[in-house]
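Q: What residues go here?
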């Protein structure tokens, strides 16, 4: 437990004021608020959580998981920063956590590179960094304690394998297929892994043609624009690979506005990733064919890691969350009853 200094808090405030970083509610903290933090944080494990943003349903579920886990009832004082999908905001937030001398930093990095400097600063300050969800690529792996998240490449491969089976079950194996991909935020682990994983199966199917890759940045709005371009540019698209649910929703809007159909009974097969509740609802409406699960409930896993570190235990460097997929052949309503997101 590190002592909290008002002076450091004031400097942290100066950083936040200049950066536009906001607390979760969007308000900017006053100096007195940081002094309050000093008292509020005493006696708890102080954890600084630097979240990517709030760009998708998955991200909202991820934030909820951490907020519900890192509570004072559970022995934590959580400092939460929403970086609004900007790496510069994440760098400032991590530096603020260092200045406030938190006990642990949790980082969900918007993209994989550009972290060596700030992670060295955290290491020099003696603050362990736990990376969650997306990965960092750094020269020195000792700059972070461990990573917890999804095997994105496996998600991509499983999506390709699902498509092979889906087509074979309908007597369409070996059929000429025209695909488009709506990629996530370029350079993010989820985008890199899903694109790579699916491409491995694409390469095994000579009759499949990937017409184009474009990023929808994991947002519904951008994805609708990208899908509108695809529909204007290419005849007879058979499959839309959407690297998250919100982009699938945008693609569906564009498909329907173009007077086309999608889903199990439609012209265009829609493959999605995340499998949030709204994706289940879209599958039940017959708009999405399959949603590859990406588990956002990583708060409890990270808390367990911190407890083990507090007890002086070693922790595994890489820890994957368990995931599956859901498609319209399944009893989706029953499955939804048992899910928290
Ligand atoms: C995946 C996560 C991605 C989700 C998107 O672990 O990083 O970011 O797939 C989210 O919904 O925007």
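A:
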């Amino acid at each position: 437990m590190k002592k909290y200094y008002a002076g450091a808090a004031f400097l942290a405030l100066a950083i936040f004021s200049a950066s536009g970083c906001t607390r979760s509610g969007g308000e900017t903290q006053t100096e007195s608020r940081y002094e309050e933090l000093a008292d509020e944080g005493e006696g708890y494990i102080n954890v600084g959580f630097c979240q990517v943003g709030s760009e998708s349903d998955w991200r909202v579920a991820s934030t909820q998981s951490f907020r519900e886990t890192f509570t004072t009832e559970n022995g934590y004082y959580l400092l939460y920063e929403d970086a609004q999908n900007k790496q510069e905001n994440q760098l400032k937030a991590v530096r603020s956590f260092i200045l406030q001398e938190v006990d642990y930093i949790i980082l969900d990095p918007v993209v994989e590179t550009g972290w060596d400097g700030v992670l060295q600063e955290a290491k020099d300050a003696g603050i362990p960094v736990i990376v969650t969800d997306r990965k960092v690529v750094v020269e020195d792996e000792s700059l972070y304690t461990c990573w917890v998240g999804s095997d994105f490449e496996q998600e991509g491969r499983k999506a390709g394998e699902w498509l092979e089976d889906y087509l074979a079950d309908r007597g369409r194996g070996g059929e000429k297929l025209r695909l488009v991909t709506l990629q996530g935020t370029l350079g993010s682990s989820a985008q890199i892994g899903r694109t790579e994983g699916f491409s491995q199966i694409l390469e095994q199917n000579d009759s499949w043609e990937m017409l184009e890759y474009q990023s929808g940045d994991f947002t519904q709005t951008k994805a609708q624009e990208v899908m509108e371009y695809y529909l204007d540019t290419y005849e007879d698209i058979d499959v839309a690979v959407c690297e998250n649910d919100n982009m699938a929703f945008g693609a569906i809007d564009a498909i329907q506005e173009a007077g086309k159909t999608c889903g199990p009974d439609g012209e265009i097969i829609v493959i999605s990733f995340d499998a949030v509740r709204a994706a289940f609802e879209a599958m039940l409406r017959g708009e999405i064919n399959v949603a590859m699960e990406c588990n956002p409930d990583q708060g409890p896993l990270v808390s367990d890691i911190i407890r083990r570190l507090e007890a002086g235990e070693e922790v595994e460097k890489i820890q994957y969350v368990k995931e599956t997929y859901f498609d319209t052949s399944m009893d989706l309503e029953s499955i939804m009853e048992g899910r928290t997101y």
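A: Context that may help when evaluating the design: The radius of gyration is 22 Å. The pocket of beta-D-galactofuranose is lined by residues 55-56, 58-59, 133-134, 150, 190, 218, 244, 273-274, 294 (CB under 6 Å).
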